[in-house]
Amino acid sequence: MKKKPTQKLIAPEGALGIEAASPLRQELLAAFAGSDEVLFDFSLAEDIDLAVLQVLYAARRSAELGTVRFSLMGKVSEKISRRLQVAGFTRTPCRTGEELEASLVDYGSATK
Amino acid sequence: MIDGFKESFREEAEELLSGLEGILLELEARPGDPELLNAAFRAVHTIKGSAGMFGFEAIGRFAHDLENIMDRIRSGSLPMTKGFADLALASRDHIRTLLAADEAPGPAVEARTSELVEALRAYAAKGARAFEPESAEAPETRADASTEKPGSEGEETVWRLSFKPGEGVFRSGTKVLRLLEELSELGDCACFPHTERIPELGKLDPEACLTSWDAIIASGKGPDAIKDVFIFIETESEIALGKIEEAAILQEREEPKKLGEILLERGIVTRAAIDEALQSQRRLGEVLVEKKLVSKEQVESALVEQEHLKRVQERQVDTGAASIRVASDKLDQLVDLVGELVTLQARLSQTALGIQDPGLTGISEMFDRLISQLRDNTMSIRMLPIGSTFNKFRRVVRDLSLELGKDAELATEGAETELDKTVIEKLGDPLVHIIRNSLDHGIERPADRLAAGKPRSGTIRLSAMHSGAYVLIQVADDGAGLDRAAIKAKALERGIIGPGADLPDQEIDQLIFAPGFSTAKTVTKVSGRGVGMDVVKREIDSLGGTVLLKSERGSGTTMTLKIPLTLAIIEGLLVKVADEFYVVPLSSVDGCIEIRSDEVAERDGKRIMTYRGELLPFVPLRAWFDSPGEAPAISQIVIVNALESRIGFVVDQVIGDYQTVVKPLGRLYRNVRGLSGATILGDGTVALILDVNRLSQAVKRDPAGRAARDEASPDA
């Protein structure tokens, strides 16, 4: 019998500053170890710092090296969208995690 | 050529100084407003920069001191005080004086320069204390004052920035994305992040900054302002800033920068590698990545730069195309030429009508349409918002209030209302006279206002609005209103009215426009010389406008100027009296009716007709202008709106509407009243343009027309 794929949803709340980077990394590592698919939901995130963004990039790199799917989802706040665009991570405003995933510079080409 | 540049500089500087005056006055009300502070700084900075460029060195040196202080005020190291506003306004006036003096300022101007520079440096050294009585503290030296870095906002330059934050910057609490936002606030910015150093999750140190950026920024700020964004992490970061090009120079490039050029400038590849890659006839970026000469990210970053440069280049071209500066005399020549075309078109229409050739008539009609469009477009080019002159009045109110010990402010409305530039130029002096009079005679002293239950500060409201072919400009004050008893007494004393004259209020009010009339107890330099309101009336008349006055004792006075939108070309009604042609401005015409010759005769010394249920006076122009010959059995009366009433002019024939190019009457006719100009008809005949307001006034004063006829005739 084929094992049912497991999914892990990570949906951090509020402003995701430097202090959120390390716990998020730990949570993602755990999720990658125990799931087939990891979803990062932006819906409750109000703001994001570079440290957290780097963690998402790293998660993407891990996904590309392994077998776990890693996806971005949920509504992206205007503040986050603007911040990422100004810093050059995206060329256009992104309203959803899916749009963001497709737009982030050097984020990775293949979706597992 | 140099003179041409100098002239351009003068024009630009005049505009900037005019704007600066308004900004400084606004700053008095909102001293901490960063936008106003920046705008004031930018104006002075531009004047300084351009002055140096065009050889106005005295202005450049003087503006430098003012600029230094303004920069320190906007950075918060000096306060914006009332005392500095006075000093800055005086400095602004002095720059105008220097501008007028060109390169040869006299000793008085040089002395004023020294005086102001000393005051500016004292302010730079002591801040607000510079305006306090002498203190024991020694002033700082000039060198100290000038060590403040100017903001150096000026010509837009495109910069290339490479920013690699130190890995530990997160731990010091630095929000790197916020720094990039700050950078983007300095100009048009595009960033490209390099994330190649970010590893997979397991190897990531979440507290290490592993991202770096290439950024392109087009900014008017100098390199220091850009570097200052990163000032708190500069020691632990790698920051390289290099100038790509002046934005204005980019505009001159025929095509955008090529990818190879950018990679070469960045020192990533050699010319030889590019030349070799280009030989493969494939995309340069792909080839270079394939050969591992550059990384994919380096190419992407260079492409971002290329695209951004292209955008800046396009923006420069757009800005250049949006407006161009043209000398006003060239515009006047254009209007004159359009006027000649209008006259020629009238001749063509008349000729076509006579020949009755369908082909020629078609061409004439098409020509007519095109000329109308050309006329409208040309006239619209000369239209300027009247608000450009409002700043001057704000200054008048400010300075005079101080001088007279009164408290008043100027409120303006309708600054965007457009008027022909010639009309705006001629309106300046009359409006200054009216505002001065309002302040001097209308607005009461603060104590008197409080006693009368009014706010301490008086208000002069200056407003402008369109009304058909006219603009209505109102100056309304909430002062004491006209003292009619005093006006009447003075008019009697001056012999302007006879003893026992029983005048209605409206006519008493009009006495203030009489030459030499003044009720001021003492002659002040502000008003009270008895020339102001007379000059106002004369100048508004010369513009073909009218002045209406309404006043209520204790509540204030409102003066309304009704001014035609343009002076150059008007729509008129062409009429004939005997063998002469006259043009009545169409905007004044209310209607035309027929009248039999026996009805034209004077009855009981008056000529009165009924028009739309209203009794109106009328005057036969044939008799008025003493034209020879007999009137036709049936004549026409053209009813016109003049000032606040209507009047009819009897003419032999109404020919029809006629687009009229107004030509001034010659010197011989300069004192003629009742005629405002002349025009040339299609067949070359001269037609005189009636000044309906003057004529109606003359008729009211002298219905029989004898004295008025003398007025309407050339001075012998």
Structure description:
The complex is a heterodimer of chains A (112) and B (716). In chain A, 44% of the residues lie in helices and 19% in strands. Chain A is of the alpha/beta class. Chain A has one domain (8-103): 2-Layer Sandwich (Transcription Regulator spoIIAA). In chain A, the strands form two sheets. In chain A, strands 1-3-5 form a three-stranded parallel β-sheet. In chain A, strands 2-4 form a two-stranded parallel ribbon. In chain A, α1 (18-34) runs parallel beside α2 (50-65). The two termini of chain A are 23 Å apart. In chain B, α1 (2-29) runs antiparallel to α2 (34-53) and α17 (421-442) packs antiparallel against α21 (532-542). Chain B has 716 residues and is α+β, with helices and mostly antiparallel strands. Chain B has 25 helices and 21 strands. Chain B is globular and about 110 Å long. Helices cover 46% and strands 21% of the residues of chain B. In chain B, the strands form five sheets. A five-stranded mixed β-sheet of chain B has the order 6-8-9-11-10. At the A-B interface, α1 and α2 of A face α7, β2 and α13 of B.
Topology:
The complex is a heterodimer of chains A (112) and B (716).
Chain A: E1 7-10, E2 14-16, H1 18-34, E3 37-41, E4 45-48, H2 50-65, E5 69-73, H3 78-86, H4 97-103
Parallel strand pairs in A: 1-3, 2-4, 3-5
Helix pairs in contact in A: 1-2
Chain B: H1 2-29, H2 34-53, H3 57-74, H4 82-101, H5 107-126, H6 142-146, E1 157-164, H7 176-184, E2 188-194, E3 212-219, H8 223-228, E4 238-246, H9 247-252, H10 259-265, H11 271-278, H12 284-290, H13 296-322, H14 328-355, H15 358-381, E5 383-385, H16 387-404, E6 408-413, E7 418-420, H17 421-442, H18 446-451, E8 458-467, E9 470-477, H19 484-493, H20 505-510, H21 532-542, E10 546-552, E11 556-564, E12 569-577, E13 580-585, E14 589-596, H22 597-600, E15 608-611, E16 614-620, H23 621-624, E17 634-642, E18 645-651, E19 653-661, E20 675-680, E21 686-690, H24 692-701, H25 706-711
Parallel strand pairs in B: 6-8, 13-21, 16-18
Antiparallel strand pairs in B: 1-3, 1-4, 2-3, 5-7, 8-9, 9-11, 10-11, 12-13, 12-19, 14-17, 15-16, 17-18, 20-21
Helix pairs in contact in B: 1-2, 1-4, 1-16, 2-3, 3-4, 3-5, 4-5, 14-15, 16-17, 17-21
